[in-house]
Structure formats: C-alpha cells, structure tokens
Amino acid sequence: MRRVGADVIVVGAGVLGRSTAFELASRAPELRVVLSGRRGAGASEAAGAMLGALGEVTAAALATRHGRLRVELALEAAGRWPTWRRRVREAVVRPRGDGYGTGTFVLLNAVGSVLDERSFAAIGRAGREFGVPVEEIEPGQVPGLRPLDNDRALRALHLPAEAFLDARRWLGCLDAALEALPNVTRVPSAAVRADGTRYVLSTRGGQFAAPTLVVAAGAWTRPLVEAVDPGLTLMPVAAAEGTAVSVTAPMPLPSVLRTPNRAYACGLHAVPQADGAWYIGATAAPTLEPGDAPHLGGVRFLLDAALGQLHHGLATARLRRIHHGNRPIGLDGHPLLGVTSRPGLWVATGTHRDGLHASPLIAQELATEILDGTASAWLTPWRPQRAPISDWTVQDAVAEAAAHHRALAAEARMRPPLTGAWPQTLADGYHQQLAAAYTQLPDGFVLPPELAPLAYEHGAALAKTINSYQQGRAGS
Ligand SMILES: Cc1cc2nc3c(=O)[nH]c(=O)nc-3n(C[C@H](O)[C@H](O)[C@H](O)COP(=O)(O)OP(=O)(O)OC[C@H]3O[C@@H](n4cnc5c(N)ncnc54)[C@H](O)[C@@H]3O)c2cc1C
C-alpha cells in the first residue's frame, strides 16, 4: 500500500480536531497535517454554542481548586475568541455568517433549586473577582423571555460581554478554512497504529505516516489510544449525552437566555442561530459508552422546560432539527489535554460542556507544545495520564449529588405528598441511594457529583473501569 509522509496526524474532526489542525497548519505552513474524521454522534455538531465563561460558573466550581482553574481557563478562552474568529474567517474567501454575538441573560426562576441560587450568587461573585461585567436587572427587561407564571424568573443577571455563535456554522467555517490551507489533507476515519517511532493511518487510498499523532476523538478517544499503545493508561473518558432542538420561532431572540448550570446538565438555554432560529438545549445523561440517538424522555423534558421557563410562545414554533451528541468528560470530571508518556502521542478531549468555548485556547496551546516543545501552563493540570483529580470527599460528593437529584425532581415538578415525613424521606432517600452506590466504587477514586448517575446506573461496569485504570497506573 502506498505510504505518504506527514508531520502530524490528527484523529477526530470535532471542534478540537479541526481547530488544532487549523492552528498547526496555519502557524507552520511547511507542516503537513492530516486530519482524519467521521461524522457521528460527536458533541461539537450538537453544541449550543454559548461561549460562556461566567455563565458556566457554579458555586461548586468556584469553591474547588480545579473548578477555579477551569473558570480561569474559560475567561482566558473568552479573551482569545475575537482574534481567533477573525483569523479563521480571514482564511476563508467568503465566510458565511456564523451567528456570533454577545450578551447573555442568566435567569433564577421559580423551578430552580437552592443549587441555582448558589450558582447565581457565584456568577455575581466571579464577575466582581475577575473584573467581568455583571449587572442585575429586572426579569421583565430580559428580551425574548416570556415564561409561564408558575415558572417565571425571579431574578436575572445580564452578562454583556459573554458571547455565543452558531456551532454548525462555525464548524463549516473551520472546514472552509482548512480547505484553503494547502498543507492540510482531510481523510475519513481510518485505523491508526504505532509503527516504531511513526504513527500510521491506513485509509482506503493509502497510508499516512507521521512522528506526531493527536487523538481528539471525543468520547471515543480512550479505545483509540489504547489500540495505538495498550500499555498506556489514560484517565477514562465517559460521555454526557446531550439533546437539543432548533426551532423556527415566531419571535426573534437577540441574546442568550439561560439558567445556571443545573442538575448534571448545562442549564436550560436558548441561543440565537445564524438563520434566526432558536437553538434550545440541553439535556445531559452521563453514560460510559456514547449513545447514538436521543432518548424520548430527554426530548420531552427539554421541551417542557423551554416552553414553561423561557417562552410559552414557542408552543407554535416549528421544529427544524433535533441535535444529539456525546460530551466527552474525564471520569474525574476534567479534560484530558496534552502529551502522553509515549513520544509524539497527544490527546485532546474531555471538555464536557464548554469545549466549543475552550477550543481556541486548547488548539493554540497544544500547537505551541507540539511545535515549540514547551509545556503550556494552561494544559499542564489536565494531562491525560494523571492521577485522578479530586477536589471532593466522598461525603461531599454524595451530598452535592443528592442536591442535584432534588433539583431535577423540582424542575420536573415532582411534588411529594405533604403528609407525615414524605418530603424529607424522599430527600433522605436520594442521599441513601447515592451513598450506597458510592460505597460500591473502588477506594481512592471519588466520582464527581455531575457523574453520580453512573454509580447507580452502571455501577459494576464503572467499578471495573476504575479498577482497570487504577491497576494500569499502579503498573506503570
Ligand atoms: C447538546 C450539547 C450542547 C453543548 N453546548 C455547548 C455550549 O453551549 N458551549 C460549549 O462550549 N460547549 C458545548 N457543548 C460541549 C462541546 O460540544 C464539547 O465540549 C466539544 O464539542 C467537544 O469537542 P471534541 O472535538 O473534543 O469532541 P467531538 O465533537 O465529539 O468530536 C470528536 C469526533 O471524533 C470522531 N471520531 C470518533 N472515533 C473516530 C475515529 N476512530 N476516527 C476518526 N474520528 C473519530 C467523532 O465522530 C467526533 O466527530 C455542548 C455539547 C452538547 C452535546
């Protein structure tokens, strides 16, 4: 089979793969970059995409060391977006509108929980601490908001600098920019393996061999890396399946409407799209293996929440598209970014709910590491073969996960019988169920609260995954 030399092979053409290929190839025109990708249930095609830094803040994030690092990373990424976007668009002859805009309204509404209240307060605190504008306004002044009375917003924050764009248009723009670069070759997904000091991608048309391989295959990353080098032990990558819809709404939406991040998900949100549609998202269901289609329960929950909490006029909106994707997330709740112990092998995944936003920063820092051989302070905390990051004790994780359960029940309008000890019994029941599920997990690994359903829905498989990761680390 014909073998062609290359300098870097990037596997996975989600936003991280495409952005990294663009950064490498545009920064070093002599570099031959091969980007291998397939269509599928990747996260990027399904994303909002809120370019959220403050809007993503939760009380828990602000209170933990690595949570704060993520907030700082998001703020840094926000600062890079205008130049990054200009560079990518300048590479295209006639770029299409990408729906980019600024302005986000965060709503604290009557179906939120105490978690929402804490995160709403944390967003204000983060704004003051990091010097980003946040203004509290009357909910009645929020453009595009018309909730049911029962679900009305009680308070609202305006984040004028927080940006957004149309994820699918942005990916199209990246495609056009890559197409314009003569040193980028795009191929469909193909088997990849190590051959001495080279990485070989075997496509139908021939083989590509390069000394550097970047695996950015989202929730599918770990098996790919292990196929290349079975001796490498990566932080396991789970998936948070997400569903959203695009609708042609009877009224325009000038900015993002969102609740704080809540109950595993990224909060309820509406994002203006380049063609005037509303993108409405999003559900999140943690799972060990990526799923290929939305669950009906998720779609129902999402529509119910959006019509009640955001705009009841959406009842007459026309459904244009259902989006579904698997957000990759490291099993300790954090991304996997940077070099591995195998020379020339790099990983970029696990960005969970803000990978589109973080993509310029990750692409640029990764390219600097690859091209200059210098370690990036932004990526160092998130190395793919790290020991698990744990800012939680088991007790705190269980308590936080139980609070998420109560919040989800409240948003779903679950109402316990107001008799005897029912309300407290239910709350205690969540706590006991989670405590029992966490007890079944191997010692030395604290599952972050946003992945808690894995502990009782996939307990045995999860314990096996953690065990094999721990054994791999002990043996390396
Ligand atoms: C519903 C939803 C809403 C979201 N909203 C936002 C938001 O508002 N803001 C934000 O910043 N982020 C958001 N996210 C998160 C964001 O989409 C992700 O963090 C980000 O897109 C991850 O990008 P990625 O390139 O790592 O992974 P992916 O986009 O999953 O890309 C990985 C790609 O690799 C491909 N692949 C798999 N196996 C192979 C193989 N063997 N060879 C080649 N390719 C392979 C997959 O098919 C996929 O296309 C959202 C996600 C979802 C699902």
What portion of residues belong to β-strands?
A: 15-25%
Proper CATH architecture of the largest domain: 3-Layer(bba) Sandwich
Largest sheet: 10 strands, mixed
Give start-end ranges of low-pLDDT stretches. Answer: none
CATH superfamily of the largest domain: FAD/NAD(P)-binding domain
- CATH first level of the largest domain: which class? Alpha Beta
- Helical amount among residues, as a percent range? 25-40%
What is the rounded Rg?
22 Å
Q: Could you name the CATH topology of the largest domain? A: FAD/NAD(P)-binding domain
Bound molecules: flavin-adenine dinucleotide
Average pLDDT: 96
Number of helices: 12
How many domain modules? Answer: 3
Structural class estimated from helices and strands: alpha/beta
Principal-axis shape: globular
User: How many strand segments?
Assistant: 20
N-to-C CA distance:
35 Å
Q: Can you give keywords for this protein?
A:
D-Amino Acid Oxidase, Chain A, domain 2, ten-stranded mixed sheet, 476 residues, six-stranded mixed sheet, FAD/NAD(P)-binding domain, 20 strands, alpha/beta, 3 domains, binds flavin-adenine dinucleotide
Q: Could you describe the 3D structure shown?
A:
The protein is α/β, with parallel strands linked by helices. The protein folds into three domains: 3-45 and 169-236 and 332-382, FAD/NAD(P)-binding domain; 100-162 and 238-330, D-Amino Acid Oxidase, Chain A, domain 2, CATH 3.30.9.10; 394-475, no CATH class. The chain is 36% helix and 23% strand. The longest helix is centred in the N-terminal third of the chain and has 26 residues, at 65-90. The mean pLDDT is 96. The structure holds flavin-adenine dinucleotide. The site of flavin-adenine dinucleotide has 42 residues, from helix 1, strand 3, strand 13, strand 18 and helix 8. Flavin-adenine dinucleotide is lined by residues 11-17, 36-38, 40, 42-44, 46-50, 189, 216-218, 220, 224, 242, 244, 266, 281-282, 323, 325, 327-328, 349, 351-357.
